[in-house]
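REQUEST FORM: STRUCTURE PREDICTION
Request ID: SP-0412
Submitted by: Lab K.M.
Chain count: 1
Length (residues): 207
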Amino acid sequence: MISARVGRWCVERGDGHDRTCPAGVCRSGRAWPALRPLTGRPATAASDTFRGVDRLVIEAAGPADAGELLTLQRAAYVTEGQLYDDVQLPALTQSLAGLHEELASGSAWKALRVHRIVGAVRTRLDTGTLHIGRLTVAPDQQRQGIGSALLLHVEAAAGADVTRLALFTGHLSEANLRLYERHGYTRVRDEVLRPGVTLVHLEKAVG
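STATUS: Completed
RESULT:
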């Protein structure tokens, strides 16, 4: 079962079903009102993604998490650096001070198993478009639905002023592309970053 927190809402997923806890105390023992799902979200996405996954809690991340998030980020992006033969990817070279500043000024979420951060994602709102970035999962926790849980959490937490979700990944990052397309994101343009590296931009309409 997964219990994912969105602000003060809770959604529990288990046994192949996606169920919003009623107002009051959910089965996880937390007292939060019910979750308001994002309009247009595929009704079967959660049940398809989270079946059989161990308990996961998602909550807001902040500057105090910078050290652990940076360690997670670098570990998760090592394979990307190898894939593109580039050890100077921004995610690999970002400093602790830079990440601390970013967390202090933006929005971020962390996925926890017990007390360990096993995944994270950051967002930035710009004129109705919610930009999603740095979606990372610990290497030993990948292919267990954590990336999907974070993505769905971000969508559910999006405010009423959000009309579009946007993200990007490298053209060789096939697992990332499959994840995003499975959740309804469509390719809108390609951006040649440098020879051998093309960024694929994807978007998803809200509502």
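NOTES: Residues 66-83 form the longest helix (18 residues).
Reviewed by: T.R.
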